[in-house]
From TrEMBL:
Enzyme class per UniProt: hydrolase
InterPro entries found in the cross-reference section: Histidine_triad_CS (IPR019808), HIT-like_sf (IPR036265), P-loop_NTPase (IPR027417), Znf-C2HE (IPR032566)
PANTHER family recorded: APRATAXIN, APRATAXIN-RELATED
EC id: 3.-.-.-
Organism: Monoraphidium neglectum
One Pfam family from the record: DcpS_C
Biased composition (Basic and acidic residues): 190-207
Top-level taxonomic group: Eukaryota
UniProt GO BP: single strand break repair
Aprataxin C2HE/C2H2/C2HC zinc finger domain ranges (all copies): 262-316
Low complexity bias (residue ranges): 176-189
A molecular-function term among this protein's GO annotations: mismatched DNA binding
Protein name (Swiss-Prot/TrEMBL): Transcription factor bHLH140
One of the record's GO cellular component terms: nucleus
Amino acid sequence: MAALLAAGSSAAEAAAGRAAAAAVAVAPPRPVMLILVGIPGAGKSTFAQSLVQRSRAPGSSTGMRWVSVNQDTAAKGGGRGSREQCIGAAAAALTAGASVVVDRHRGDQVILHVDDDLVAIRDKYPKARSHLLVISREEDLDSVSHLAPRHLPLLGRMRALALDLVRREQQRRQDQQQQQEQQQQQQEQQQEHEQEQQGHEQRREQAQEAAGAETEPAPIPSGWALGFHSVPSLLRLHLHVISTDMDSPALKNKKHWNSFCTPFFLPIDAAMRQLEGDGRVAVDAEAAEALLKGPLRCNRCGAAATNMPALKAHISACAAPLP
C-alpha cells in the first residue's frame, strides 16, 4: 500500500513521484485503494489537471473525489493503457501534489466524508439499494484479524460515522419518495405545486435539525447492517454500511449473497465485543470460505433456494420483516 504523500517543494514532489512509481511497479497484483485527499497545485501534466478538474466537480459536498488510475484513465489516444502508462499516470499525479488511489475495480466515486482517520464512499457495485463503505486510512490495517484493543476507538469512530451515513441515506430516500409523490401530484393538481414544494423543504429542514440534535450514538436501525467481511476482498479495513433489502442488479451470485447473509459477515458490534473480551478478532479462514459456498437462504424467513434467480424471486414476495 502506497503511503499518502504531502506536497512539498518541486524537487521533493518529483522525488516522491519517482518513489511512488517504483513502489507501484513492484507491488503485488492485489486490489489496492489509495485516496485522493486534495491537490495543492495543478501541476503541468494533462492527467494531473484532469484530477484537479474532477476534484472540483459539482455534486461533492467535500470538494474531493475518489479517483482511479487504471488502464482506461491512463490510456492515451483511446484504447487501453499499458501497465507502464498506469504507473506513469500515478507518478505524474503524485508529482503534482496529489494523493491518488490506485484501484483497478472502483472507478470514480464521490467522497461522502474524509478526515485524518476515515474516508466514506458509496460502493461502486452495491449489493443492496444502499451500500456504503467506511474505510480506515491506517497503514497496514487490512482486515479484522489485524485489529488490536488499541483500535477500539477507531472502530467507535467508524460506527458513529456509519450511523450518520445511515441517517443521511434515510433522508435521501425520504426526499426521493417525497419528490416522486410531488411529481404525481403535479400531474393531477399543477396549481398546488408551489405549496407542495414549500412543505417538502420545511419537512426536510426539520428532519435535518432533528438529526443534528442527536448527541448519543443511536442503535443500528432496523433494515440496516454494519459489519466486515471475515476475509476481505480489498486492502484497507473497510466497514460495510448496507441496507438489508439485498435488492441490487450487482448482487449476482452465491458468493455475493453469502458474504452478507451468513456469519461470514461480522457485525461491528460483535467485533468490538471480541476485542474487548479476547484482545483480538479470531478468523478461521477455511470456515469463512466454506460459508461462501454454503446453501442460499432468505435473510428474512430462512427459506432455502436452489439458485440466485429463485432466491431473488422469493425475496421480492417475502412477507417476513427485514432483519
